[in-house]
Design goal:
The complex is a heterodimer of chains A (526) and B (365).
Chain A lengths: L1 H24 L7 H11 L6 E8 L5 E8 L5 H18 L12 H9 L5 E4 L2 H9 L3 E5 L5 E4 L29 H11 L5 E8 L5 E8 L5 H13 L8 H8 L11 E3 L2 H10 L2 E5 L5 E4 L17 H30 L7 H12 L5 H21 L5 H18 L5 H16 L3 H39 L1 E2 L2 E2 L48
Antiparallel strand pairs in A: 1-2, 2-4, 3-5, 4-5, 6-7, 7-9, 8-10, 9-10, 11-12
Helix pairs in contact in A: 6-9, 10-14, 10-15, 12-13, 12-14, 12-15
Chain B lengths: L7 H13 L15 H25 L5 H9 L1 H33 L6 H18 L1 H28 L17 H13 L8 H4 L9 H27 L1 H6 L3 H7 L2 E2 L3 E2 L2 H30 L5 H18 L4 H10 L1 H29 L1
Antiparallel strand pairs in B: 1-2
Helix pairs in contact in B: 1-6, 1-9, 1-12, 2-7, 2-9, 2-15, 3-4, 3-12, 4-5, 4-12, 4-13, 5-12, 5-13, 6-12, 9-11, 11-12, 12-13
The chains are: A alpha+beta (526), B mainly alpha (365).
Chain lengths: 526, 365
């Protein structure tokens, strides 16, 4: 009973929180223009970036109105040329009665004859009014009317379409997403010119009102997954969404996992490819990183370039990525295990040279490895945060001072330096940075297991990792598909990539409604 | 639990890994010396017959585990007693496998580590898998299956390349006639590992395609039997029948002999890795069998609590069951195959099978 009471209490509290802002803003516009302007000013606290321009328009100056916009978000030239100019000049110059509109009211006249704009909406209450102003639209309020207009005038400074800084390719399109939602959806639209590419937009975040666009290919994407994504987005009740990472953490299946279950990309071509396979894309306003769900494990090993290079090249490169994944994961722990517990596995010559190196070092292999791994992690983190100008300093400190000096001082063996460098470089091979980070994390528990139990401890750790991977799901799709559950048909694009001319179907684990990608040239010979 | 489903591929992977599990580590059928491989083939054919009984019981009750249809066939309380007996049996055998692996690790690599610590570590992973559920184990088994098969093929290739295999070790065939071969095959090889398939009477109801149950099991027995035969042939071919029989872990010794240009050598720690995977699947399936048997017979809903209790019981049993490894082996060779395996693997299923058919025959009349 106590629990039930607690729950109902919580519900009540939630309801209270919701009611508050609504009661403040959901009021309708007043007939009195002055009153409306005062209210706008008061609600925005007289913020200096809000421009309120009051105009007296009409041939005899009887129409008094106000133009409101946010400086910086709205396109100033556009407002001047297409809103203020017609209101002040055109209306005064032309006799409206000439156009046979005597019986129309001022509002319709303005709307129909004065404002030559594409996007125009009527607004009735303050809630909508503030939404429009603060997202860059221009609002016009009229004396004597409880309705105003908003005119689409969004135009802020944009970074433009640049080459993506992560996930770079040698061959392939060089355009990347930017921070503006519309630019990003346009980039996707430009890749897929199909009427079935559907885009749903919805503002999320009570304070930020960030637009989140849900993009999918109708007739290909599984309806159940689309509905699931929609529901999870609807459940979000948060004040702010500043980056797609917020959405990612709010809609992912399992919070406590080192592995990412949602794919993110800065590249329109990767996103388009995902959508074409039957995945669902989420583009969030204000960030160049778009999300792609459902994501599976192998997806993080695929780069868009795999499909632009010839298939044999990309097969070998992909194989190398899997190899470096394992190297990054197990090299330090394998080194510890072999040198501490299983020296017999090493060739005699190598064993002697390793033993000679380790002769002078004071620490056991684990401490040595931890020391160097941690140093490297610190160096890397410093490299990311530090101003670019002093970038070369860190390489000198890292490579010469720490690396070479540590060996010469006899604190670590040079074999350990090789192990740490190999691990680090292998980690950078991963095309998806979030998968590389999870490997970085998992390396440390494996090192401890290897130091305590040797290879046996490592295999216990690896079994646990495989179990964990198999337990994950991304929007209902098992994370390890198409390897577990194994689907032979989908193996064409996992470790191998078959030639384009053999990719007949979409991956079946995504349950696409339209399975066929490519018509079979000769159906009998399948 | 009701919605948990396994595909036939997953069940197949589980079954093969389960069969290979601990049987590939110990020298299977080595009492028959160089004819060990024949005993395995014989044991396998016996395994087909046993699985036929389990599969035909499953065919009549496709949605129920043995613990539940036992109640339908021979009455409520006798059925429940059988369910309890089975759950203890599975815990005991699971604990035996756990002990096998603990001893394997202690003898081969970690001589200084206490057995309890090793078993505890294995149990922790098993508990983790147990809490994640049978569906996750099914999916993991698919990945493990691929890994084990690839590494197995690599090892065979390496043995052949290092020119260690001597066919003459396998001769003479049937030196002392059929009797030692038959004595080893029945009941030793039949009950371990083939008869242990009885645990799948608890797991078959989770199968997605019910009609595939029998076929999957038969193919799994066939594949694992052939793999075991090949393994034993390689063990005898590489280290000779005498040493294979006297060695504690002949497979490790065989793989330890691999030496290519002094660079690739002493791969036995890596072989242990593969064996661990099979052992892990085997123990966890036994514990699952036990948990399913108890939970269905007494409608226990708290699967996770049950799994924790069962895993802890198995851990404690594995430590306390015998004083040392020699005793463990002696019990494993002379007690378990004669007094513990037969009633559970053959007796009870056969009884249920006969009673069911008599009942049906009566009902028809």
């Amino acid at each position: 009973m106590r629990y039930v009471r607690k729950l109902t209490d919580m519900k009540k509290k939630k309801a209270n929180i919701k009611e508050k802002p609504e009661s403040n803003l959901a009021t309708n516009l007043s007939v009195n223009l002055r009153e409306n302007i005062e209210k706008v000013k008061k609600t925005l606290g007289g913020s200096t970036d809000i421009v309120i321009r009051e105009i007296v328009a009409g041939t005899d100056g009887t129409i008094s109105l106000a133009v409101i916009y946010t400086e910086g978000l709205a396109d100033k030239n556009f407002i001047q040329d297409f809103i203020i100019k017609p209101l002040m000049l055109t209306i005064r110059e032309t006799e409206i009665s000439d156009q046979g509109a005597e019986d129309l009211d001022t509002k319709s006249i303005l709307k129909n004859f004065a404002l030559a704009n594409g996007e125009i909406n009527e607004i009735g209450d303050f809630d909508v009014l503030f939404q429009h102003i603060l997202s860059g639209d221009t609002v016009i309020l009229l004396e004597g009317y409880t309705k105003g207009f908003s005119i689409g005038s969004k135009g802020w400074e944009d970074r433009g379409i640049n080459e993506p800084s992560s996930q770079t390719v040698i061959r392939g399109p060089k355009d990347g997403f930017s921070e503006t939602l519309r630019t990003n959806t346009a980039l996707v639209r430009r890749k897929i010119k199909d009427p079935n590419l559907w885009i749903e937009t919805k503002p999320i975040g009570k304070k930020t009102r960030t637009d989140v666009a849900l993009i999918y290919l109708n007739g290909v994407a599984d309806d159940k997954i689309v509905e699931e994504v929609r529901q999870r987005l609807n459940k979000i009740d948060i004040d702010a969404i500043l980056e797609s990472g917020y959405i990612e953490e709010l809609i992912q299946d399992k919070a406590y996992s080192p592995f990412p279950t949602i794919f993110n990309t800065e590249r329109p071509d990767t996103l388009a490819a995902g959508i074409l396979e039957g995945r669902i894309a989420l583009i969030i306003d204000g960030t160049p990183f778009a999300l792609l769900v459902p994501a599976v494990f192998v997806q993080f090993f695929q780069s868009s370039e795999d499909y632009y290079q010839r298939f044999d090249v990309s097969f070998l490169i992909r194989l190398m990525r899997f190899l470096s994944f394992f190297l990054a994961l197990i090299t330090p722990s394998a080194y510890i295990a072999v040198t501490t517990f299983h020296q017999e596995m090493l060739p005699t010559q190598l064993l002697i040279s390793l033993a000679a190196q380790r002769e002078g070092t004071p620490f056991p292999a684990l401490i040595e490895a931890l020391l160097m791994e941690l140093t490297f992690e610190i160096l890397r983190e410093a490299g990311v945060r530090m101003p670019r100008a002093i970038g070369s300093a860190i390489s000198i400190v890292g490579a010469l001072v720490l690396g070479q000096a540590a060996v010469e001082a006899g604190i670590v063996s040079s074999a350990m330096i090789i192990v740490v460098s190999l691990t680090a470089i292998s980690n950078f091979v991963m095309p998806a940075i979030n998968m590389a980070i999870s490997v970085r994390m998992l390396r440390f528990p494996l090192m401890f297991l290897a130091a305590t139990f040797g290879l046996f401890g490592m295999i216990i750790g690896l079994i646990a990792i495989v179990l964990h991977l198999c337990s994950l799901r991304s929007f209902g799709v098992p994370y390890m598909s198409p390897m577990a559950p194994f689907k032979l048909k989908d193996q064409k694009d996992v470790i191998f990539r078959t030639p384009m001319s053999r990719m007949f179907t979409r991956p079946t684990f995504l349950k696409p409604k339209d399975k066929v990608r490519e018509k079979h040239p000769n159906p009998e010979s399948n | 639990m009701g919605t948990v489903k396994l595909s036939s591929k997953q069940l197949f992977s589980i079954m093969v890994l389960f069969e290979l599990g601990s049987s590939i580590v110990v020298g299977l059928g080595m009492e028959a010396r160089q004819d060990a491989w024949i005993t395995i083939l014989l044991g396998m054919s016996g395994g087909f017959i046993l699985f036929f009984i389990y599969a035909s019981l499953f065919k009549h009750y496709p949605d129920l585990p043995l613990s539940e249809y036992a109640q339908k066939i021979i009455g409520k309380w006798p059925g429940k007693i059988i369910a309890i007996l089975y759950s203890f049996y599975f815990i005991y055998i699971g604990a035996r496998v756990l002990r096998d692996f603990g001893e394997l690790i202690v003898t081969s690599t970690l001589n200084q580590t206490p057995l309890f610590v090793i078993n505890l570590l294995i149990s922790v992973v098993i508990l983790y898998g147990g809490l994640l559920g049978i569906e996750v184990i099914g999916r993991s088994a698919e990945i493990f299956f691929i890994i084990v098969m690839c590494l197995g093929i690599i090892f065979i290739g390496l043995i052949l390349v290092s020119n260690l295999f001597h066919v003459e070790n396998l001769l003479p065939v049937l030196e002392d006639g059929w009797s030692p071969v038959l004595k080893t095959a029945f009941p030793l090889v039949l009950t371990f590992p083939f008869g242990e398939m009885v645990v799948f009477t608890m797991l078959l109801p989770f199968l997605f395609e019910k009609s595939e149950g029998k076929k999957t099991g038969m193919y799994a027995i066939l594949l694992s039997g052939l793999i075991l035969t090949i393994t034993v042939i390689f063990q005898i071919g590489v280290i000779g029948a005498f040493q294979a029989a006297s060695s504690t872990f002949p497979l490790l010794e065989t793989i330890g002999r691999i030496n290519i240009q002094d660079i690739i050598q002493r791969l036995d720690p890596i072989a242990i890795l593969i064996l661990m995977i099979g052992g892990f699947i085997k123990i966890i399936i036994f514990l699952f069998g036990s948990a399913i048997s108890l939970s269905t017979a007494f409608t226990i809903k708290r699967w996770k609590t049950l799994m924790v209790i069962i895993t802890c019981t198995a851990l404690v049993t594995s430590i306390l069951m015998e004083q040392n490894y020699l005793e463990h082996i002696q019990v494993g060779l002379n007690v378990v195959p004669y007094y513990i395996h037969p009633p559970f693997q053959m007796g009870i299923p056969l009884l249920l099978f006969l009673v069911m058919h008599v009942k049906r025959w009566r009902a028809q009349k």
